[in-house]
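Researcher: Sequence recovery benchmark, item below. Answer with residues only.
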């Protein structure tokens, strides 16, 4: 024996702590830590106050909140366990308009295929045959399934044109496999929760705060997915995703 300290044996984080149901539960609990609640309140105040100034100001407020939600994903992917800050303000486009456009581009995946089908067929919904109606429903379901991946790509700061790149979006879905199916199912449940809350409580200062909680859960879950498997997505260097087999224990 040389008497030196043996380097720790490392494995990929996705093997040591894989993304799964426990990650989803962690994301559900996450908004209720102190900083998360403060962030929720602050974002609700921004949305409420700026919306009083009119539609355009309200839209800008929504962009600011989206930037904070995107920061939740990236800070989680980098290993933050709590939300300590809202990130650096780099400019009006980067932190206000940029998130709005990224979310808009991502939403193309949710509605674009079905809209393109209607445009191609030159028919209204009530004019479709049973087979055509089934095709339209299938396109909506496929778009809904792919939407969280496009949203994730946007949150990570990938160029906007890549959000619409089918090779990147569909390729990422295939690469992540079961883990992506889990996050897509969670995103669908979050969407149902948001829609139900909005229908029941409407909008306002307190209502906006309540609506922001499920949104934080989703973006935290997206960040945990990247934290586990970001090396396969080209997010960060490979070495950042290697962890000691023994964790904090020493051999």
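Model:
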């Amino acid at each position: 024996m040389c008497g030196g300290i043996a380097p720790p044996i490392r494995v990929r984080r996705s093997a040591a702590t894989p993304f799964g149901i426990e990650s989803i539960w962690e994301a559900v609990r996450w908004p209720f830590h102190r900083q998360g609640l403060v962030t929720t309140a602050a974002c609700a105040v921004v949305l409420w106050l700026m919306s009083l100034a009119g539609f355009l100001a309200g839209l800008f407020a929504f962009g600011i909140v989206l930037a904070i939600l995107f920061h939740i994903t990236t800070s989680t992917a980098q290993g933050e366990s709590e939300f300590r800050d809202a990130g650096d303000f780099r400019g009006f486009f980067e932190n206000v308009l940029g998130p709005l456009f990224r979310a808009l581009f991502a939403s193309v995946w949710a509605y674009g295929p079905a809209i393109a089908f209607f445009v191609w067929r030159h028919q209204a919904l009530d004019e479709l045959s049973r087979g055509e109606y089934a095709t339209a429903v299938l396109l909506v379901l496929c778009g809904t399934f792919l939407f969280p991946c496009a949203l994730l790509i946007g949150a990570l700061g990938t160029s906007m044109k890549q959000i619409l790149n089918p090779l990147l979006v569909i390729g990422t879905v295939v690469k992540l496999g079961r883990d992506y199916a889990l996050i897509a199912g969670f995103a669908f449940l979050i969407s149902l929760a948001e829609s139900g809350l909005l229908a029941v409580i409407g909008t306002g200062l307190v209502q906006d705060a309540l609506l922001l909680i499920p949104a934080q859960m989703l973006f935290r879950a997206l960040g945990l997915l990247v934290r586990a498997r970001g090396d396969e997505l080209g997010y960060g260097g490979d070495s950042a995703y290697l962890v000691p087999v023994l964790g904090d224990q020493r051999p």
